[in-house]
Amino acid sequence: MAGGMSAECPEPGPGGLQGQSPGPGRQCPPPITPTSWSLPPWRAYVAAAVLCYINLLNYMNWFIIAGVLLDIQEVFQISDNHAGLLQTVFVSCLLLSAPVFGYLGDRHSRKATMSFGILLWSGAGLSSSFISPRYSWLFFLSRGIVGTGSASYSTIAPTVLGDLFVRDQRTRVLAVFYIFIPVGRSCPAWRPWP
């Protein structure tokens, strides 16, 4: 480069650009600032409320097995060892698929990827209610599918909230979102019957 001038754009400092030029005939792109989606504020808060509610349901679904484990063992006639395997299958599928959904969420529509995951775990959870006791292996499979779908939501939902809100609003909304994790975990233990 002639004259030792860098062709790179200078870093902005506290007083703006540091008095450097990007070079003859070149212009620096405008600085990138974090912006939220172009939604009216009320729609962003409605979306956040829906995501928080789904987060509550998601974590209830994670721990529902612990609340009804004895009933599941009785219906499917499974031993304690196999009953423990239910949560292992769930967590293993969740751990293996979370990076995949993170990758997809960065490169494709987050809303579509997250919606697919929600449909996957809610559909698998609903269909597991109709599994015959003779096919206990299907129940294990459904728990794996629930774990896979949950990975999609748990991975992508916080990033959607991060896109919807900026600065202090983002921190407050994410704090409320994450409050639903312990609440969802404790809900399956609230059994109205003895």
From TrEMBL:
PROSITE patterns xref list: MFS
Family matches, as SUPFAM superfamilies: MFS general substrate transporter
GO-annotated cellular components: membrane
One annotated GO molecular function: transmembrane transporter activity
Major facilitator superfamily (MFS) profile domain span: 47-194
The keyword Ion transport is annotated on this UniProt entry: no
Alphabetically ordered keywords of this record: Membrane, Transmembrane, Transmembrane helix, Transport
TM stretches of this protein: 44-65, 85-105, 112-131, 137-161
Region (Disordered): 1-30
Location relative to the cell: Membrane
Coiled coil residues, start to end: none
Entry similarity comment: Belongs to the major facilitator superfamily. Spinster (TC 2.A.1.49) family.
Protein name: SPNS lysolipid transporter 3, sphingosine-1-phosphate (putative)
Organism the protein comes from: Homo sapiens (Human)
Gene, per the UniProt record: SPNS3
